[in-house]
Write a sequence for this structure.
């Protein structure tokens, strides 16, 4: 021991003994624009001497001997070695082409990717900027391994489901925690119309510098009880010292639906329903279906006989869509000096939806300022605001949602010739809207006579101070506020009476205020001991409080449709005010240790208390450990020249999920049971004082390799995530007066692997081609559900199966003998096999699993090509192996046996005579033939999409100089350009908005198709 | 300076961590803890009022349950063209065990029972002056819920042996936590009826004569008459109906139309013949008859000629139907804010007439005069001689589409098409009994499923 100590001390002093020094000065710049690089490390090779560049990029360092080699490194840039003999040098650094050296934001700090032992996916501004989408998550689709993003439909600003490494919960939330610049973001859905809205739309995609997705426990455990679903860290842009920059961007283009469906035309419709009526009369002679059918056809033909000649042939689907332009204007200013840097931005987005009555307008502003007050104190503030106006349509399950218009008959004219008004607007006999013409309520009446506007005002800001207490020891204090005010206003005019049930107009107005504030206070200590031991420790506390207050009012009986405010309502039908809140108090710590630049170890933990947990379990502890080994640093790897980098890493840890109701542990009585104007209470919830968070134990093992000087980088991860103590809505006997109770019961697991492959295929002076591929496979399985099955529709949570599997009778096509819908009995036989004989009695067939909405794998393939000033990016996104349930099929692909809904053209192939082999049972008016839920309506939901294609051209300097501008780029960008799928519905990326939940996935119910956008844009730098 | 700033930061951090801990204690704002809910007499009164709301749930007395029974018991009198698959299944008499409507009605019924049980558990804190009334109302509500449940989810009293047929589980205490004891097996049909009758007899004894629109002595007696009639206990049914009529607190409205006031679509108080009606205002309560029967609602149910042909030409009750767009709608519940008329005086006259006739007694009045009272109100001439069928047909028309058809055909042991020329399902058909919801069987393994499911 003493010898060792002596050796260490002698080694340390040797440098000083031979102190015969020379000095070199220099400046380090960014090769791209010549701006100074602050904080770059300049090191004399072979000795322990190093310094960092100052705000001007300048450094001064001394060395011994006549010459020396300087090693210059800066995160995000390629390291360089420069031989110097003294004097003044200038060094231009090029941006690192490989991802291994990039800076990655992690909870409460940053790390270099190389040193990370957890699993973090990063998407940078370059990739997602200027995407023509309403919300930034849409731009992430296909860009990060292990992250599945599903937009529920093509309505603007509505729900998006994100699953990071699968679903970890059955009843509690499955969405990740979002943190912007250290502040947990409000993601509460405040919509009142039955379809979720997405509060993340308030973020300007062009303010985002990078998005980091923390996937495993090692990365996420520092967010404790809210990290089970992963954490999405959003970092906004900051100014750089140096020249002030002005950037202006504009894009404009058109959007169209990704797909349209095929419905019967007038002739097909009339002939089909005549066939259906004849068949019904044959089966049930007690009623004259044929005569009845003719009278109905006449009714739907606006009371005339035009249907007999197919004179009117309305394509109702076309009525639901509209011309949909999009434009976006962006302006930002950034710059600063060695003390102050700033970034200021403004944006205006004006987007018209593809669905009639749907549009979205938003403006955003941001100011990020950082100030170095002196050599030990930095302060800064990020502040942003957003205001958006979303003109919305009803949820997918409403007669008034535009796309349900496809149910109307093609023989029905758009304008009723009897009245000269929109069909359904006026019944000449009553002077009121028609109650049975067209066949259903005409959604155009809601488009023309109603609105549903959602206005949000959002302020998001944080303030920080960073104090250097001693060398390597800093204290950071952050305080942030996220404030969201939303107003919803709805008015349904007189002509919507058939739908609203109110003859003289109805109005609704609500206002919600959320105040969410958060403070983080933590110490960070980092130091390198003896050049070999790198230590980085973070420890601190965090407190968050969230409060939502809401009020709303409804009124009916308006003097005329000119009066839309509830002030004019003769009858105030409802008024509400409510309040709810939660708080989290947390202590966290993380220690990273690196030995010899090759052995990595990280420990982290969070101690979380929440108001949501039961009195008996208020605090939980969430630790994680991880380790990494950079094998390529080992001596024995020196010979393996082609492998430039190789790292093995593994992690294990616990994370929690606290996304339950704010008071789920309490036994409650509500005061909302007034009766006839007299107040009343009722029991609403059973108590569970033991309620606590769900716990997910995650294991991850991964490898990162760089080949051929990191021109090819491959990362692969295998993980398991086992969730126990599920916050489960457990069915209780209804005889108790309750249907369910939230209990910590059950388990589920996710297993999977992810591969990311990045390759610089061609790197020439003028031409560059890079490819990156990500591939993820996740297997979700519920291992214990306390013996129950959850889910009321076709999606179920069932033990031994993936969350949300589709369960229904198995359809066996039409009986060739008589056209009856047949089902496989599927009853379990004594030998364990299922009875594969068929029956036409729906109830005799047993429900079986008919599909799984979870994909086998998802992938993204991105290719970029750069040739001189031209760049082309092509991103493919794919989802493979999932099924969809075509819920609208029971009405629109129902052999005309479930009402007068217009049918999809494939129903023409129905059974017609004995011997016909078809999957479409005989058409029988009103005599439901195969319309009950079954595998008749299950479909392969796999798709591969050309998600994004961007063709850009940066004008050569010769031109820009003449124009006296710094930089100019024009581009053409297409989003969702082309989709390859077998799915026959509108779009395979779908989840009916009125019922979307953890369990309910992959159901299509008159859901608007996704948006295809083609835009032209320019970016100008001044 | 640096030291000061650092000190300030560290101290505030420590202090805030300490004070934050207290801020984890957050109380809900719209609800209160159950331990605080039933502490005083007025708390219990509020819970009692809430029990009416629970009973009046859209899936229960709010009307959907009655609509379901009309759809299930129908034989060609009404035409269902709605899109609610679960109701289509009920209309087609092919109800899968996972039918959501069957489940919701079950849950709503027991939620109302639990509310009433909560009230009954806290009578100790009720002022002595109010105690009888509160107890009577809660028992009335509980028995009303049990009566509907046992009629829908179990074999009728008259179908086999009620002492051996499974009824529905009897739960008579409030549920505050879930244990094995909550997995209650089905009580026999007779046991459920006994409980209902015990509760109602007690309620009738304890309730006041006047109690606003809440349950009264007569409401309990009227319901009791209905229950006795269902189990063919004619003397008791007759006497209970007679007590209501003899109280003279109710009178038939001058016109049948006044019994179902439209009032311009605005809320309206009880009519003179409402013995008990679920209150609907713009702020509370719901009339789900309106949703399905009215052309102003979903208009999913229209009326066929098979039914319309039953009326004599002078019958004013035909005016309760109206034509819109070529279909005929039942207008009894056209007012979206109309009260749900659950027990009307007309029913009491018809019960008294039927039971007197069957027993050849003349308690209160002759069957002939009771029947003619109903007939005369709708401009029909008086009959001189009547048969039992005359009374039953009158009852059919007077109470049409109010939720009586299914239990009447079961009680009478006739087919669903009995009143429209025969045909249809037999009274004992297992298809006319709702399945015990599949979910319920999962949550409670002690339950048995009904025949045919």
């Amino acid at each position: 021991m003493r010898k060792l100590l002596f050796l260490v001390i002698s080694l340390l002093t040797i440098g000083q003994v031979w102190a015969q020094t020379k000095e070199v000065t220099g400046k380090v710049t960014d090769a791209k624009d010549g701006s100074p690089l602050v904080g770059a490390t300049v090191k004399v090779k072979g000795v322990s001497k190093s310094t960092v560049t100052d705000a001007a990029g300048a450094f001064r360092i001394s060395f011994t001997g006549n010459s020396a080699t300087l090693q210059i490194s800066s995160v995000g840039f390629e390291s360089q070695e420069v031989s110097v003999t003294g004097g003044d040098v200038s060094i231009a650094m090029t941006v690192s082409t490989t991802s291994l050296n990039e800076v990655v934001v992690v909870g409460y700090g940053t790390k270099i990717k190389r040193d990370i032992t957890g699993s973090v996916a990063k998407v940078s501004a370059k990739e997602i900027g200027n995407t023509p989408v309403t919300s930034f998550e849409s731009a992430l689709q296909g860009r990060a391994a292990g992250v599945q993003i599903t937009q529920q439909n093509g309505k603007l600003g509505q729900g998006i489901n994100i699953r990071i490494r699968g679903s970890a919960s059955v009843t509690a939330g499955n969405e990740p925690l979002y943190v912007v610049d250290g502040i947990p973001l409000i993601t509460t859905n405040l919509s009142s119309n039955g379809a979720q809205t997405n509060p993340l739309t308030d973020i300007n995609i062009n303010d985002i510098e990078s998005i980091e997705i923390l996937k495993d426990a090692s990365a996420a455990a520092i967010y404790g009880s809210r990290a089970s679903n992963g954490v999405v860290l959003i970092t906004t842009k900051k100014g750089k010292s140096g020249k002030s920059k002005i950037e202006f961007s504009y894009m404009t283009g058109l959007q169209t639906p990704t797909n349209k469906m095929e419905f019967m035309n007038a002739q097909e419709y009339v002939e089909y329903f005549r066939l259906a009526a004849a068949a019904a009369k044959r089966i049930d002679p007690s009623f004259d279906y044929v005569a009845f059918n003719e009278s109905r056809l006449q009714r739907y033909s606006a009371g005339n006989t035009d249907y007999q000649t197919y004179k009117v042939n309305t394509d109702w689907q076309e009525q639901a869509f509209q011309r949909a332009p999009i434009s976006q204007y962006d302006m930002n200013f950034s710059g600063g000096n060695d003390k102050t840097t700033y970034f200021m931005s403004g944006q205006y987005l004006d987007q018209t939806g593809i669905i009639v009555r749907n549009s979205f307008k938003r403006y955003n502003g941001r100011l990020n300022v950082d100030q170095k007050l002196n050599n030990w104190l930095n302060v800064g503030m990020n502040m942003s605001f957003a205001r958006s106006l979303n003109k919305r349509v009803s949820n997918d399950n409403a007669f008034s949602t535009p796309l349900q218009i496809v149910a109307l008959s093609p023989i029905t004219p758009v304008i009723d010739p009897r009245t000269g008004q929109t069909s359904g607007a006026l019944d000449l006999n009553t002077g009121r809207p028609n109650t049975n013409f067209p066949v259903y309520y005409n959604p155009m009446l809601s488009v023309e006579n109603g609105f549903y506007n959602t206005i949000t005002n959002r302020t998001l800001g944080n303030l920080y101070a960073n104090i250097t207490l001693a060398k390597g020891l800093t204290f950071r204090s952050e305080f942030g506020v996220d404030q969201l005010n939303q107003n919803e206003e709805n008015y349904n005019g007189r002509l919507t009476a058939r739908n609203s049930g109110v003859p003289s107009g109805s109005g609704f107005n609500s206002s919600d205020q959320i105040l969410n504030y958060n403070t983080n206070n933590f110490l960070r200590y980092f130091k390198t001991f003896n050049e070999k031991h790198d230590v980085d420790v973070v420890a601190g506390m965090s407190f968050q409080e969230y409060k939502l207050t809401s009020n709303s009012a409804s009124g009916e009986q308006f003097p005329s449709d000119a009066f839309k405010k509830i002030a004019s309502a003769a009858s105030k039908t409802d008024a509400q005010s409510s309040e709810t809140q939660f708080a989290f108090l947390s202590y966290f710590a993380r220690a990273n240790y690196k030995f010899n630049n090759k052995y990595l170890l990280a420990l982290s933990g969070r101690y979380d208390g929440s108001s949501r947990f039961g009195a008996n379990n208020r605090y939980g502890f969430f630790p994680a450990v991880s380790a990494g080994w950079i094998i390529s640093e080992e001596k024995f790897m020196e010979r393996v020249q082609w492998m430039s980098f190789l790292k093995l890493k593994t992690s294990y840890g616990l994370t929690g999920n606290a996304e339950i109701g704010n008071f789920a542990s309490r036994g409650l009585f509500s005061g909302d049971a007034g009766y006839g104007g007299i107040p009343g209470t009722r029991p609403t919830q059973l108590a569970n004082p033991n309620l606590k968070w769900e716990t997910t134990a995650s294991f991850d093992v991964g490898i990162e390799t760089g080949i051929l000087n990191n021109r090819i980088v491959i990362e692969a991860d295998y993980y398991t995530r086992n969730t126990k103590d599920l916050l489960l809505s457990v069915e209780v006997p209804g005889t108790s007066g309750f249907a369910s109770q939230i209990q910590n019961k059950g388990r589920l697991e996710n297993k999977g692997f992810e591969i990311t492959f990045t390759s610089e295929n061609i790197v020439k002076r003028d031409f560059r081609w890079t490819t990156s591929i990500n591939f993820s496979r996740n297997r979700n399985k519920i291992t214990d559900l306390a013996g129950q099955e959850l889910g009321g529709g076709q999606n179920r949570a069932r033990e031994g199966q993936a969350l949300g599997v589709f369960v229904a009778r198995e359809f066996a096509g039409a009986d060739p003998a008589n056209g009856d819908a047949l089902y496989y009995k599927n009853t379990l036989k004594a030998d364990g096999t299922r009875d594969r004989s068929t029956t036409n009695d729906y109830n005799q067939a047993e429900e079986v699993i008919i599909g799984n909405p979870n994909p086998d794998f998802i992938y993204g393939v991105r290719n970029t090509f750069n040739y001189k000033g031209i760049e082309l990016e092509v991103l493919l996104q794919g989802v493979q192996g999932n099924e969809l349930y075509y819920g609208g099929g029971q009405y629109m692909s129902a052999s005309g046996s479930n009402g007068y809904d217009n049918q999809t053209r494939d129903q023409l192939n129905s059974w017609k005579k004995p011997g016909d082999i078809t999957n479409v049972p005989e058409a029988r008016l009103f005599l439901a033939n195969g319309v009950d839920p079954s595998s008749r309506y299950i479909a392969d939901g796999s798709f591969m999409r050309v998600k994004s294609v961007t063709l850009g051209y940066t004008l050569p300097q010769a031109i820009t100089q003449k124009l006296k501008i710094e930089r100019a780029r024009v581009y053409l960008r297409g989003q969702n350009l082309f989709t390859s799928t077998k799915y026959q519905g509108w779009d395979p990326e779908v989840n009916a908005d009125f019922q979307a939940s953890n369990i309910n996935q992959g159901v299509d119910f008159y859901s608007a198709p996704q948006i295809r956008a083609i835009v032209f844009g320019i970016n100008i730098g001044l | 300076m640096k030291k000061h700033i650092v000190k300030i930061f560290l101290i505030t951090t420590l202090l805030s961590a300490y004070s934050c801990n207290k801020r984890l204690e957050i109380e809900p704002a719209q609800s209160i803890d159950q331990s605080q809910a039933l502490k005083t007499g007025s708390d219990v009164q509020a819970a009692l009022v809430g029990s009416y709301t629970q009973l009046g749930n859209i899936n229960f007395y709010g009307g959907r349950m009655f609509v379901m029974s009309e759809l299930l018991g129908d034989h060609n009198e009404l035409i269902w063209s709605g899109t609610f698959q679960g109701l289509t299944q009920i209309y087609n008499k092919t109800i899968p065990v996972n039918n959501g409507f069957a489940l919701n009605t079950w849950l709503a019924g027991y939620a109302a029972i639990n509310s009433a049980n909560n009230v009954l558990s806290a009578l100790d804190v009720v002022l002595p002056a109010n105690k009888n009334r509160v107890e009577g109302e809660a028992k009335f509500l509980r028995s009303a819920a049990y009566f509907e449940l046992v009629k829908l989810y179990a074999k009728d009293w008259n179908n086999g042996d009620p002492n051996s047929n499974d009824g529905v589980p009897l739960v008579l205490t409030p549920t505050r936590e879930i244990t094995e004891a909550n997995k209650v097996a089905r009580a026999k049909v007779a046991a459920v009826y006994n409980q209902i009758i015990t509760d109602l007899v007690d309620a009738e004894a304890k309730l006041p004569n006047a109690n606003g629109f809440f349950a009264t002595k007569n409401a309990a007696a009227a319901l009791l008459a209905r229950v006795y009639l269902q189990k063919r206990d004619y003397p008791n049914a007759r006497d209970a109906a007679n007590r209501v009529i003899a109280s003279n607190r109710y009178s038939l409205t001058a016109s049948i139309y006044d019994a179902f006031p439209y009032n311009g679509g605005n809320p309206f108080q009880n009519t003179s013949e409402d013995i008990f009606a679920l209150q609907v205002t713009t702020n509370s309560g719901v009339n789900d008859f309106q949703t399905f029967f009215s052309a102003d609602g979903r208009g999913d149910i229209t009326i066929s000629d098979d039914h319309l042909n039953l009326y004599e030409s002078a019958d004013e009750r035909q005016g309760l139907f109206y034509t819109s767009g070529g279909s005929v709608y039942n207008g009894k519940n056209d007012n979206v804010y109309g009260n749900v008329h659950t027990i009307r005086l007309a029913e009491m006259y018809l019960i008294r007439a039927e039971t007197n006739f069957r027993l050849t007694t003349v308690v209160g009045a002759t069957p002939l005069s009771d029947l003619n009272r109903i007939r005369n109100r709708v401009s029909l001439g008086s009959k001189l001689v009547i048969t039992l069928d005359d009374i039953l047909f009158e009852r059919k028309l007077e109470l049409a589409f109010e939720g009586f058809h299914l239990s009447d055909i079961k009680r009478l042991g006739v087919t669903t098409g009995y009143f429209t020329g025969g045909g249809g399902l037999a009274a004992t058909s297992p298809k006319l009994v709702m399945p015990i919801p599949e979910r319920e069987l999962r949550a409670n393994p002690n339950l048995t499923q009904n025949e045919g499911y």
In short: DSSP finds eleven helices and 52 strands in chain A. Chain A touches chain B through 92 residues (CB under 8 Å). Residues 4-19 of chain A have pLDDT under 50 and may be disordered. The longest strand of chain A covers residues 571-595.
